[in-house]
Amino acid sequence: MGTNQRSQIVMTDDEVTAFIERSRTATLATIGANGLPHLTAMWYGYIDGAIYFETKLKSQKAVNLQRDPRAVVMIEAGKTYDQLRGVAIEGDAVIIDDTTADEYWAPAISVFERYNGPYTEEMRPFVEIMMNKRVIVRIDPTRVRSWDHRKLGQAGMPLAGTTAEFIDNE
Asked: Are 89 and 73 in contact (CB under 8 A)?
């Protein structure tokens, strides 16, 4: 029997938080009307351990979540097997459409800051434009899974294969 490496690669809660805070793009999976997953790359906000998205209420993902609030969010990184790491959050989505609520504007500002820079009152009109006809989606986690292959201590693998020439070396 082989060894169970799953327990070796799980991130701690602090590692999960740091990974989510430092990452840039998440994949949001909702359930389409036909029962198949609908996957969308999303920018996100992160406040007090909660992931938030902003989207149009009539977007396919929002329509799906109104019908069935179950969702999965995955954030991943790594260009070679020895560097693969990620977090998958299963949960229920809550749509926040009350534009007078703090829980509407705080995530909007969080999204703005993650991708545009520090928020100031001078930036308020830009955030308001960004949020025009949009809602906030909060994911309430029911299960969090994580993996970090770097914990296995494998020798670094070269970036190879037919796609290697197209990958940025950051």
From this structure: yes
70-77: strand order across its sheet: 37-42, 26-31, 70-77, 85-96, 134-148, 50-56, 45-47
What is the distance between the alpha carbons of residues 119 and 114, in angstroms, rounded to a whole number?
A: 10
Question: CB neighbours (10 Å) of residue 42?
Answer: 19
Looking at the chain, which runs of residues are DSSP E strands? 26-31, 37-42, 45-47, 50-56, 70-77, 85-96, 134-148
Q: 138: which strand partners?
A: 52, 94
The first and second tokens of residue 116, run together, are: 């545009």
The DSSP code sequence of 56-86 is ETTSHHHHHHHH--EEEEEEEE-SSGGG-EE
Helix (H, G, I), strand (E, B) or coil at 166: helix
pLDDT in tens, 35-56: 999 999 999 999 999 999 999 9
When pLDDT is averaged across residues 90-96 and rounded to a whole number, the result is 97
Task: Provide the pairing of β-strand 26-31 with 37-42.
Answer: antiparallel
Contact (CB, 8 A) for 47 and 110: yes
